[in-house]
Amino acid sequence: MLAPPTEEEHEYGGKDPALWHQQKHGCGGFCSKMLDYYCSHRGKLQYVIWLHKNCDEECSTQAMDNAATNGHLDVVKWLHENRYEGCTTAAMDGAASNNHREMVNWLHENRGEGCTTAAMDNAASNGHVDMLLWLSQNRHEGCTTAAMDGAAKNGHGRVLDWLHRNRSEGCTSAAYVGAASNDHINIVRWLQQYRREGCTSAAIDGAAANGRLEMIKWLHTNFTKGFRKTTMDVTASNGHLIVVKWLHENRTEGCTTAAMDRAAANGHASVVRWLHENRNEGCTAAAMDGAAGEGFMDAVKWLLMNRSEGCSTAAMIAAASNGHLNVVRYVHINLSQPATNKAIAAAAEYGHLPVVQYLHKHRSEVCSAQAILQARKNKHDEVVEFLMQHEDCRQASCVGDNLDNSTLELQTESVNSSAVGSANGGLSSTQEGQSSPTYAFSHDELEARLRAEVEASIREEKEATIRAEVEANFQTKLQEMRASIRAEIQADVERQMHEQIEAQLLANLDDL
What we know:
SecEffector_AnkRepeat; Ankyrin_rpt-contain_sf; Ankyrin_rpt
């Protein structure tokens, strides 16, 4: 897969290298990157030749790989004759994927890298039947189940038929999922008629999640199993009210609280109201948390007036993190929230000064060193300046300045003529003639509290990330296992039926 060009490569990509070479030569391999970039774009061969003659930096195999993928045969031939870096299998794989027949044939006859199964897989996914025929006649790598799966997903019926008749790899249940999700009803019918992998719940959920009502109706008519509560959940999450209503009227599985939770978080107010009026599952605090985090003020107000679940501290934290001051203000005034300084820390981290100012003025939580640390790290100078005007924040900053600078990335600063951090880590006077303020904690105690706070925050974030990854992997493996077991059982049943019928026919022959 081609790496996207950097902003700097875009800037220099349209310029003759003679204009920038002297300035950029030797700057972190920039000339090498530009060689690769020029090879990827039609009409830049003259720039490639100029760099070849005037610059001693090398290019990489990406030069020919990218040129081949994009069909620039003149560039590929020139690189082949004048450079030594060569290419990889990605050259033919990419050319086949994009149906550059002449390029694939030239690489096959003049280069020795060959290709991988990705050549046929991607050609199939993109609907290139003629390329499949050429690869099958001239190459030996073959394909995988990804070929038919990709063709089904993208609605390429001719490719499916060719693969079914000429290849033995077959497909997986992902073929149904892709076709159903993308509303290729003719492909789903073909799979039902010619393949035995079977339709899965994932295929039905995929169609529902994308609002494919006619597909859902067809699946309902032709498959007795596969619908589940998550079908309505994902439909509601994506705001497809018509499909939600149809499932409500024609299926019995219902939904879970996730339906309203996710609909609220995604701003689908009409779906939230309909579920409230017509279903009994309700929602959880996650509904308001999600709506608050995305700034959907109307949804937050509606949930407060019509539901009793309320929200958690996540509502204030998420709203502050995304700079939704109106939501932060509304939640503070209308909902009882446990004390947490994570909200102001989140607002400071992303530079939302109005939110930081509001929270500092109206909330009772002590400003944390984490707020100043993140604001400094992300160069939100206005936020740092505001926080450092207040004693509680200066105290937190003082402790942070005395910790290992290489770890916390804090620097001693002066804000609004307030001296922060002396050579021994104490606070100097904040105004001329005033003595240094005293604090209730010793330096060691403050340092210990700060370290505990930072560690707890990191642990919480890591735990949430790991939990989400594990759950996603589990669901994926579970679906794969179900599909595999179903396929094995179907194959076993088919084999047994063949044996029974064959035995019966032999018995009938004996009777004759």
